[in-house]
Specification:
By secondary structure, the protein is mainly alpha-helical. It has helices at residues 2-8, 29-32, 35-42, 66-82, 97-102, 104-154, 158-178, 189-215, 218-225, 228-238, 245-263, 270-293, 302-325, 329-340, 343-370, 373-395, 401-431; strands at residues 13-17, 24-28. Strand 1 (13-17) and strand 2 form a beta hairpin. The radius of gyration is 26 Å and the shape is globular. Mean pLDDT is 76; it is low at 1-102.
């Protein structure tokens, strides 16, 4: 029915309906016979709201229109195959249509001659894009961890530093919104109420990690933070989720590796260990809570969600920071200036820690829009490896052989977990 409408009346407007959706897409048939028409249709950007994929898991935000666009695109690709048009509809005369429709060899030749170069070029561009995304993400994360630790070595007040980092992120988002570089979401009372829980757990996760960074080596904190999947599986199971045996088995090397790394850590400190573990709890609860409370706000993208959570987290954290360590800030500031020599050096380090804290989070959300959750999870695991090695080289932390072995086992366990959880997700999708 679609093909007859397109051929008999090219100037009319036809409605193509996807069999998987109730939505209809009005399309001008004459534009479909143009190379640009289908190109623009199939190149529609697909934005996925993925704030909660912070460690490979979404906050329950998905793009409801993604499958509809691909459905319609695939139908038009099928239409072009039937009538021997290469993808994008080549401007051949209509008199060629009957021959192509009855000649399988012509179909095969047309498909192979056009699809092979396009596939190779797309593969190269996707690989390059993925390398750039991961490169920025890793670089920004490494810079943040280095300057965050440099500041904490001189000015050991993690509550103030964590508040400043949230403040920089809040200012950054206001600039993006005011310059219309990022669409500002519509603010409503239900939206703010829905953000209160995730923002609270985000605050707990951020400040706990900062406390851990101030007490132990950065590498040790990241090894312990690699145990986050353990908390995710345990808490989700309590809330009714079920996991296959391979997921449970994958968390065993994580527990074993983290335990071995903790026992053999040179800079071991109970506050540092506790801070990293509490940070895991905070971020896992943030992800779980967000899936439940933000289901009604799927139109808000991940970066905007993170921006507003940063703003609310700052309002949570800064008053508590004043109460916990505010009386020591002035004295600690003078000691830091004496130790560093130039006040400008300390200011630059603090500013860099705040800017790159926001940038690496922003890059992670943009990466989630471009890659699959499994690729993101594997990339996040490798990110910890890069950060651990970089900080060991910069700060020259002593590493015992058993400590290195424990760290490697824990990191490998997170990789196994990402593979097992991806298999679980594919299995549930097939059942649905």
């Amino acid at each position: 029915m679609v093909t007859s409408n397109l051929i008999n009346n090219p100037s009319s407007t036809s409605t193509v309906t996807s069999s998987k959706s109730n939505h209809q897409y009005p399309i001008n048939a004459s534009s479909l016979l143009n190379n640009r028409g289908l190109h623009h249709l199939s190149a529609l950007p697909t934005k996925v709201s993925t704030f909660s994929k912070f460690h490979g898991y979404p906050l329950g935000l998905s793009s409801t229109h993604t499958s509809q666009v691909h459905d319609s695109s695939s139908k038009f690709s099928h239409l072009s195959t039937v009538y021997a048009f290469p993808p994008g509809f080549s401007p051949k005369p209509i008199s060629h249509i009957p021959r192509a429709a009855t000649d399988p060899e012509a179909n095969h030749e047309a498909e192979s001659s056009v699809s092979e170069p396009n596939t190779k070029s797309k593969s190269k561009s996707n690989t390059l894009q993925l390398a750039i995304v991961f490169g920025f993400w890793y670089f920004q994360n490494v810079v943040f961890n280095i300057y965050n630790k440099k500041v904490l070595n001189l000015f050991p007040f993690p509550w103030l530093l964590a508040s400043f980092q949230l403040f920089v992120g809040s200012i950054w988002m206001f600039i993006l919104w005011s310059l219309k570089l990022q669409p500002c979401p519509k603010i409503s009372k239900p939206f703010i109420i829905a953000l209160l829980g995730p923002a609270l757990f985000h605050t707990i996760g951020h400040i706990s990690a900062c406390v851990s960074f101030s007490k132990v080596a950065v590498s040790f904190t990241h090894v312990i933070k690699s145990s986050e999947p353990v908390f995710s599986v345990v808490f989700s199971s309590f809330l009714g989720d079920t996991y296959p045996l391979q997921v449970w088995l994958s968390i065993l090397p994580i527990v074993l590796g983290c335990s071995l790394a903790a026992v053999t850590e040179v800079s071991f400190n109970f506050q540092g260990l506790g801070g990293a573990l509490i940070s895991n709890v905070g971020f896992v609860l943030r992800n779980i809570y967000s899936k439940r409370s933000l289901q009604s706000f799927k139109e808000v993208n991940g970066l905007n969600l993170y921006g507003w959570i940063s703003i609310i987290s700052l309002l949570y954290l800064f008053p508590v920071a004043i109460f916990v360590e505010g009386s020591q800030w002035i004295q600690g500031y003078h000691k830091a200036i004496q130790a560093v020599g130039k006040p400008s050096t300390l200011y630059i380090w603090v500013l860099l820690s705040g800017v790159f804290y926001h940038l690496y989070n922003q890059s992670s959300y943009q990466a989630l829009d471009e890659i699959s959750p499994l690729t993101f999870s594997v990339g996040n695991t490798m990110k910890r490896v890069v950060v651990i090695i970089s900080t060991i080289l910069v700060f020259r932390n002593p590493v015992r052989p058993l400590n290195a072995l424990g760290s490697a086992i824990a990191i490998f366990g997170t990789f196994l977990y990402s593979q097992a959880s991806a298999s679980k997700k594919k299995g549930s999708e097939k059942k649905d």
